[in-house]
Write a structure and sequence with these properties.
The protein is an alpha+beta fold. The chain is built from eleven helices and 35 strands.
Length: 794
């Protein structure tokens, strides 16, 4: 029996020993694991490019517990170089497992775990002294952590209220307490949320310049004449003395919430999702009604990467209701997209901002070294062929149908460096994906004639471009547009209906786009607007057809314009069409001309345009003998039975002597054409010229009469007002019968000479001629016209 009792006792002692050994061994192992996680946490915090630096001040590990102190420094972007960083001191109390009955645990104190830790943070006294406007609780933040045996951990976070006010500027921040919890597993997958009552931010913005009072308009000192209506009121320039006025702004955000589901990685890029939301954000000036308010705004950020080198970023913005000056604008949603973002470029960009801050802030970005660094970052980013833009655009104005769309632009490395901006955009543009859909959209008060208003119906625009802009397809439709605009000359009303267009193009052998494009318009009606008399213009069934073709190195274009009906002031004017044709345009030379045009239009401030390169590129076209032509010119005037018909083709060549009197003809190698115009057209044109001439004659005669009258009056009465101070009396219009008689006389005299020479033919109410130019000889209807002698003055 004693033997049995002894064995039982020793067995019990053995079990206790094993248990004690397990607890002690577990505590030792838990202590090492807790320290390992602490060191990993330090490494995660260290991010020089973000201005973060973390260092361990002490770590004292015992068997069942440990303590540690950490210093965390953060330097704000664009802070002055001599400004001290904001420093926080973290105090850590660690309880090792496997039993970690930490006194701060409210629940599950005796639950087996690897360990528990409480971290409290407070502002370093030196930082507090450097920021006298900063006020926070002695315990600025607290984190209670529980570490599981699987290496995962759970953290309860409490962030105390914080106030900061800058005495010099009046800027201030008030942050209300935040609480939350997050979980980090052994695979460094982070999930959790924070929430709080909100924050208030106060700052100021530059105020718009006040409207200066108009200076009274005085008569001219020399002539006594009043200023013309075109001169308008003169306003004094603003005074440069004194600080610029500023206006207060207050941003008040309530019901803040942050949630995240990400994978923690070194370097600051954490793939996954994170959301920032609020119940309401208001922006105001402190005078009462907010300038703008956003109800239930939210930003959801998604970051993904397949290889850790290229990242896809999506930032989805949504607001349930937008208020502008108290008016409901409706909900708004869109997503900002960045695809194939190179990590190397992102790292360099973060470093650039840090360098920019050290160099003196945003103003130093104009320095050549900064520009070169930024250009290098841009080249590195474009090398990955990224794509940027907006998707999921959804705007819903109250009582209206949604406006939706997307725009995604892909970029590629340009063939050359240091390109002019226009050339860079052409070279760097890689792909396009565009959609705008607005079934119906209205603005303003349609019934208020004294205010701007308008509406759009059936707007849809799509465009796609394949990589390298190998092909570009586009379609456009606008069923109806109605606008009422109040301008300086009064209201203008525009009604447009049935506007549509499409384009199908591809990149050809010359690297230029070829294909077709079409535009059609059912009707355009414009009334009112500028001018002494209100305008009333109506176009009906207007079309444009464009075709670009390629033949080896040469390009050709054909553009057809057609108008079915034109009305002015309610009176039909006529219809017409014409085609503009160009052929034998040398593709490589066209590219050179395009480049010269880019460089000509890109000038630094103060430089003088030099068109030499542009003119030289244009001259290089001429040895290829390009052909420019007007074809199928057909114009019908309402009330006239006969139309105007014409065609003309010009073949160009290099001049032999550009300084010669007949240099204009030297550019022309050949020309062929035919013109047939109704006599009524020509007579109407001559009548208008005669009317203008007679009106000018009457005005000159009236001016001479007044001058003679003023001279005679001044001699009789020296105190008489000077000339020009009396109101002008409108002159009567020239007598229509006299205008018609003189016009007929001028017409008959000039026409008789042209008919006698044979340069014009007269038949069936039309005048016609056949044009032929070759070997520097011009003939009209087969009769030579001595142009060279006329130009040479012979």
């Amino acid at each position: 029996m004693a033997d049995i009792m002894g064995k039982a006792i020793w067995a019990g002692v053995g079990l206790v020993a094993v248990a004690v050994a397990g607890v002690v061994g577990g505590a030792a192992w838990g202590g090492r694991e807790a320290e390992r996680q602490y060191r990993d946490w330090l490494a995660t915090l260290e991010d020089p490019q973000a201005g973060l630096h973390a260092s361990s001040l002490a770590y004292e590990r015992g068997l069942f517990s440990a303590t540690a102190r950490t210093r965390i420094e953060w330097r704000a972007p664009f802070a002055a170089a001599d400004a001290p960083p904001l420093a926080l001191i973290a105090e850590h109390r660690v309880q090792h497992g496997p039993i970690a009955p930490a006194d701060w645990l409210a629940e599950g104190r005796w639950t087996p775990r690897l360990g528990a830790m409480r971290t409290t943070l407070h502002v370093d006294p030196a930082s507090a002294a450097a920021l006298p406007g900063l006020r926070s609780a002695p315990e600025a933040a607290r984190i209670d952590s529980q570490i599981g045996f699987d290496g995962g951990s759970t953290h309860d976070v409490t962030i105390a209220a914080l106030d900061y006010a800058d005495a010099a500027s009046g800027d201030a921040l008030q942050l209300k307490p935040l609480t939350g919890r997050y979980v980090l597993d052994r695979q460094r997958h982070l999930r959790g949320e924070l929430h709080g009552d909100g924050l208030t931010l106060r700052f100021s913005v530059a105020a718009p310049p006040p409207e200066a009072p108009a200076v009274p308009e005085l008569p001219d000192a020399a002539t006594g004449a009043a200023p013309s209506a075109d001169e308008g009121s003169q306003t004094p320039p603003p005074s440069p003395q004194g600080p610029l006025p500023r206006e207060p702004r207050i941003v008040d955000a309530g019901g803040l919430k942050f949630d995240f589901d990400q994978t923690v990685q070194a370097g600051g890029y954490w793939p996954g999702q994170a959301t920032i939301a609020a119940q309401r954000i208001a922006v105001g000036d402190g005078s009462g009604e907010p300038l703008a308010a956003f109800e239930q705004p939210q930003v959801r950020v998604t970051l993904a990467s397949a290889d850790g080198q290229l990242y896809d970023l999506r930032e989805a913005f949504s607001v349930e209701r937008v208020l502008a000056h108290g008016q409901n604008v409706g909900p708004l949603r869109f997503t900002l997209v960045g695809e194939r973002l190179a990590r190397a470029a992102l790292d360099d960009l973060r470093g650039f901002y840090r360098t920019l801050a050290q160099a003196g802030g945003p103003a130093s970005i104009e320095e050549p070294a900064m520009q070169a660094q930024l250009a290098a970052i841009g080249r590195k980013a474009i090398a990955a062929r990224p794509r940027f833009g907006f998707t999921d655009i959804d705007l819903r104005l109250p009582g209206q149908q949604p406006v939706t769309g997307r725009l995604l632009i892909g970029l590629r490395p340009p063939a050359e460096d240091n390109l002019p901006p226009q050339a860079f955009l052409r070279e760097a543009l890689d792909t396009i994906d565009l959609l705008i859909d607005a079934p119906a959209l209205a603005w303003g008060e349609a019934g208020n004639a004294g205010a701007d208003s308008g509406r759009i119906e059936g707007l849809r625009f799509t465009a796609t471009a394949t990589p390298g802009l190998a092909s570009v397809d586009a379609d456009f439709r606008l069923d109806r547009l109605v606008t009422h605009v109040i301008g300086l000359a009064g209201p203008t009303d525009v009604t447009l209906s049935g506007l549509r267009g499409d384009s199908r193009q591809k990149r050809g052998q010359t690297t230029l786009l070829i294909g077709d494009a079409n535009v059609g318009l059912d009707e355009l009606h414009v009334t009112g607007g500028a001018g002494e008399e209100p305008s009333n213009l109506k176009l009906s069934r207007f079309t444009i057809q464009v075709l670009a073709t390629e033949d080896g190195e040469y390009l050709g274009f054909r553009e057809r314009f057609a108008l079915e009906a034109l009305e002015l002031d309610g009176k039909p004017q006529g219809r017409g069409e014409l085609s503009l044709v160009a052929s034998r345009l040398h593709g490589p030379t066209l590219l050179k001309l395009q480049r010269a045009g880019d460089e000509f239009s890109t000038l630094s401030p103060g430089s003088t345009p030099d068109p030499t390169a542009l003119i030289a590129a244009m001259m290089e076209f001429l040895p290829h003998h390009p052909v420019l032509a007007f074809e199928n010119v057909h114009i019908e005037k309402t009330g006239e039975p006969l139309p105007l018909d014409a065609r003309l083709a010009l073949t160009l060549q290099p001049p032999t002597d550009p300084s010669a009197p007949d240099a204009a003809l030297q550019y022309l190698q050949a020309a062929q054409g035919q013109v047939a115009v109704p006599e009524s057209f020509v007579l109407a044109l001559v009548t208008e010229q005669v009317h203008t001439a007679m009106a000018n004659e009457a005005e000159m005669a009236e001016m001479e009469r007044r001058m003679q009258q003023e001279e005679a009056g001044a001699q009789a009465d020296p105190d008489r007002p000077e000339a020009g101070t009396e109101p002008d009396t409108p002159l009567p219009e020239p007598d229509p019968q006299q205008v018609a008689e003189r016009a007929r006389q001028v017409y008959d005299e000039n026409l008789a000479q042209l008919l006698a020479q044979g340069w014009l033919k007269r038949a069936d109410g039309r005048l016609s001629t056949v044009i032929d130019y070759r070997e520097r000889k011009l003939t009209l209807n087969g009769v030579e016209l001595p142009v060279a002698q006329m130009l040479g003055g012979e």
